[in-house]
């Protein structure tokens, strides 16, 4: 049973959800005529299972917070015309059945990273599809949560806050942002190129979503190259993209287990190119 993948220390509410999960799974298997397969990497906020059914290969995602999952489903439906997210096949309270992406390899694990031109096309199509008025939050509100989490993880975000205060005071036309577009949330598809999963939608500057691709560069030279080439290919303001990257770099550094990466990200965040 995939509940063993859930992290300990979930709290009483989530523990009750774990206890009820077998019955919920059994009901969904019957209702949607599913054959369950292997589990994917699940954590404290969801359980994800491969499956097959009348609609073909699929992914079943269940979460203890039905409102957060419904928000994710709404974002996926907004982005759907782009072809750059999995299709929503069916929903129930606290559960969603999604199209399986094949091969579905995480882009961060590919032997060769996408080029800036390829990533610009992916990003542009994703951002062109959604309506920013549908976003459940503004980018500034999402940033407050990100910075608070970063501080708890030891990040110094004082400079980041100053940078983003200036950016938010000088806004550009907003788009519907994915909100968490690191390359661990991007899948490789034989049919559609790159496909994004797990959106945390918000409305704001397209450079925010672009910053993660830049910060995936191994060192400062690679990050500068990605910044310049992605800005050129995507038609983004390179100075704004640079500012967003510098603001978000300390958050990436706080999450990285690799000392050399931490050094490079922090130096980039200080503008030491």
From TrEMBL:
It comes from the Bacteria. It holds the Pfam family APH_6_hur. InterPro entries: Kinase-like_dom_sf, NH2Glyco/OHUrea_AB-resist_kin. This is Streptomycin 6-kinase. It comes from Actinokineospora diospyrosa.
């Amino acid at each position: 049973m995939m509940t063993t993948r859930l992290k300990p220390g979930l709290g009483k509410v989530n523990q009750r959800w774990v206890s009820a999960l077998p019955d919920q799974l059994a009901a969904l298997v019957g209702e949607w005529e599913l054959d369950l397969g292997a589990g994917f990497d699940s954590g404290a906020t969801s359980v994800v299972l491969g499956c097959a059914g009348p609609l073909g290969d699929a992914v079943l995602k269940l979460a203890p917070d039905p409102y957060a999952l419904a928000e994710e489903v709404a974002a996926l439906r907004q982005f759907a015309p782009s072809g750059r997210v999995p299709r929503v096949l069916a929903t129930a309270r606290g559960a969603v059945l999604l199209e399986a992406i094949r091969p579905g390899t995480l882009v961060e694990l590919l032997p060769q990273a996408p080029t800036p031109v390829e990533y610009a096309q992916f990003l542009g199509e994703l951002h062109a599809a959604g309506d920013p008025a549908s976003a459940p939050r503004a980018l500034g509100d999402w940033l407050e949560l990100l910075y608070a989490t970063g501080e708890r993880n030891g990040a110094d975000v004082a400079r980041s806050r100053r940078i983003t205060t200036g950016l938010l005071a000088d806004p550009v036309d907003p788009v519907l942002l994915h909100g968490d577009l690191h390359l661990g949330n991007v899948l490789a598809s034989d049919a559609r190129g790159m496909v994004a999963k797990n959106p945390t939608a918000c409305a704001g500057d397209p450079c925010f979503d672009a910053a993660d691709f830049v910060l995936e560069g191994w060192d400062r030279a690679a990050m500068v190259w990605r910044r310049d080439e992605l800005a050129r290919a995507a038609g983004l303001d390179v100075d704004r993209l640079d500012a967003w990257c510098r603001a978000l770099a300390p958050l990436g550094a706080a999450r990285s287990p690799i000392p050399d990466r931490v050094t490079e990200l922090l130096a980039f965040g200080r503008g030491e190119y």
